[in-house]
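hey so u asked for the seq, here:
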Amino acid sequence: MAYIYAVRCNFADAAKEEAWNAWYSGPKLAQMLAKPMFLTGQRFRATGLEQRRQYLALWSLASPEAFTTPEYTSDWGFFEWAPFITDWSRDLYEMPAGSDPAQFAAGDGEALYLAAFEGMTEAAADAAMQHAAAARPGVTWLKAVGLDKHSPRLGLRRLTDASWRPAAPVGAAGFSETIFTPISVCARAAERV
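ran it, structure tokens below
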């Protein structure tokens, strides 16, 4: 079983944003992937549809226990950048059985579609997801299983054409869609002995 850890946020200081992105896509990415049970990580920036949160970090994990290891609890966070992080959410999602989290890794010229059900109950998100699933073929629908559960369901689809847009709106209150393009490579953890 694999898990997706989705961190979404905005950055509130334009003068420091480039330095923050260099840190997050470089040293921070490497730091997180050195921790037990973190498998992959990639960063994205919103470029289409609704852009409530500009940044997305998508991590794949081997287990939710990744958040309880001493390596994780001793030094996680945004450090000196924390005062500039706004609209922050972090949610843990379970991948469907047999799914490969690498299916969400986006390369040059590609993008990632994300559908969220912000602030909905699980029942409301399930009902909206049924409609969204019919209108958005090819999306993998994930269930929140941990952390803050800002969105009880999440839809992800790697887009080989970054200009793709959905044909029609879903129209459910709290349902949002964003197209993200990669601002880092999909980095993988070094193999551990």
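The chain has a mean pLDDT of 93. Residues 3-188 form a domain with the Alpha-Beta Plaits fold (CATH 3.30.70.100).
lmk if thats what u needed
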